Amino acid sequence: MAPISKSKKETESSDPETELRIGIGELVVAKSPAILRTLVGSCVGIALYDPLRKLGGMAHVVHPESNGRPDQPGKYADTAIPELIRDLTRLGGEQRRLVAKYAGGAKMLSAFSSNPIGDLNAEMIERILTQIGIPVLGKDCGGKHGRRLAMDLTSGTLRIEAVGQPTLDL
């Protein structure tokens, strides 16, 4: 794995057991075989996938808008999606083939805050994907539970696990 920057990584590993963890505000792109993993609460994990090339990327989106901040493009929906597209294109993917899946946006702190950041994150991701014409093949948002996400770049399946909920494969 060759890190690009603190918040952005890519890999071309041939190890079938490669698992890449995406931290808060980070994004990662990789080629199959690899599994991209993150854990989200009110944040949203957005995964883009090129099924022909079997490559994909995931970002751990914390806020809907960057408001011009250049740091950590994976942290904001309005910078994470374009950055994922650029990185996937550089690895050989094509925007016209990309599909999206995303999950998260829970109301984790609703008792402590009136700020619906989870809803805002999911809405911004949906708006951006619609504007640029990337189809959403699956999503699992809302509720009051965090989620563990795992994107298998061999199949394009996004596995979503949450305590007390059935496992969901999108």
In short, what is this structure?
The protein has one domain: 60s Ribosomal Protein L30, Chain: A, CATH 3.30.1330. Helix content is 18%, strand content 35%. With 170 residues, the protein is α+β, with helices and mostly antiparallel strands.
What does this entry look like structurally?
This protein has helices spanning 77-90, 117-132, and strands at residues 2-5, 8-11, 19-21, 27-31, 35-40, 44-50, 55-61, 99-104, 136-141, 147-152, 158-161, 168-169. 18% of the residues lie in helices and 35% in strands. The two termini are 26 Å apart. The chain has 2 helices and 12 strands, in the order βββββββαβαββββ. The longest helix has 16 residues, at 117-132. It is an alpha+beta fold and 170 residues long.
Number of domains: 1
Give a short account of the largest sheet: 7 strands, mixed
Q: Numbering strands along the chain, what is their spatial order in the largest sheet? A: 1-2-4-7-6-8-9
- Low-pLDDT segments, ≥5 res: 1-7
Under the CATH scheme, which architecture would be assigned? Answer: 2-Layer Sandwich
- CATH fold descriptor: 60s Ribosomal Protein L30, Chain: A
Question: Helix content range of the residues, please?
Answer: 10-25%
Count of helix runs: 2
CATH hierarchy, class: Alpha Beta
Shape call = globular
Distance linking N and C termini: 26 Å
Overall pLDDT: 89
Number of strands: 12
Order of helices and strands: EEEEEEEHEHEEEE
Radius of gyration: 15 Å
Residue share in β-strands: 35-45%
Structure class: alpha+beta
